[in-house]
């Protein structure tokens, strides 16, 4: 089944000290990125600018604001960042020149919406799993007022931004889809890192299950010790995952009948996605698959001998207490 390919346009607003942190990330001025393990600094030389910053982000923002004669408060938004991205499959097999052309076309859209002289930087990152662009600008209106609220707007205006952006992009890339706005859904958006964590946990769970499947009367002691070592990080990670799924209102199921129903729902959603590639269907499918993966984790946990499970939980509790008392 061919996956739907979506356009992504997201806004963030920054007021003061955090502007330096955003610049450090966008301009790759740090040697390591512990908070974002997807950054492969060995590939950072592939990144490129469509707008090269002439000064630091904060310095440029303050210069533009001063020249416009704007009055500012400590909580005034001085910089807006726009994330331009897309579904990973869209960029697969595209050359660097084709990727550059895509982001140039996206930047044209932003320049139609915002005064060109207010842009600070536009940098394309190719050193992460999916190519994307960070565009920063000072939120000055046509009549030189500092107002991110007027430019970006409320939920209705944000939805219009998304629609206009999709119309602009689909003219050149007809296979792109417009996802449903988050304000039209009941659930909170599940961030990509949760899906990444689930993928990592699924790999760990398969390793644990393989060890248990290989156990017999002759090697049981050694295999159980191996499982115990693997559980040291796995058990607290599974519990954190449950907390996160609760937080993002992903509904849990507990019975065999309900789990069978969940698998049927996934199949039905996949079928709907084939015939109508709507963002709402894609989101439901992603959430349902995430939940199904979690149920698989719980099934493997239930196979672990109770005494080993308890020992792993006690070790995690002791480690947590130790961390708190340092």
Shape assignment:
elongated
Oligomerization: single chain
Helical fraction: 40-55%
Count the DSSP helices: 11
Mean of residue pLDDT? 77
Pairing-aware structural class of the strands and helices? alpha+beta
Compute the number of strand runs: 6
Largest sheet: 6 strands, mixed
Write down the secondary-structure element order.
EHEHEHHEEHHEHHHHH
Layout of helices and strands:
Elements: E1 5-14, H1 18-26, E2 48-51, H2 57-68, E3 79-86, H3 88-91, H4 96-113, E4 119-125, E5 132-137, H5 148-152, H6 155-170, E6 176-177, H7 192-213, H8 220-247, H9 256-275, H10 279-303, H11 306-324
Parallel strand pairs: 1-6
Antiparallel strand pairs: 1-3, 2-4, 3-5, 4-5
Helix pairs in contact: 7-8, 7-10, 8-10, 8-11, 9-10
How would you describe what is shown here?
The protein has 326 residues and is α+β, with helices and mostly antiparallel strands. 55% of the residues lie in helices and 11% in strands. It has a six-stranded mixed beta sheet, with helices on both faces. β4 and β5 form a beta hairpin. α8 packs across α11.
Give a brief outline of the structure.
The protein has 326 residues and is α+β, with helices and mostly antiparallel strands. The chain contains 11 helices and 6 strands.
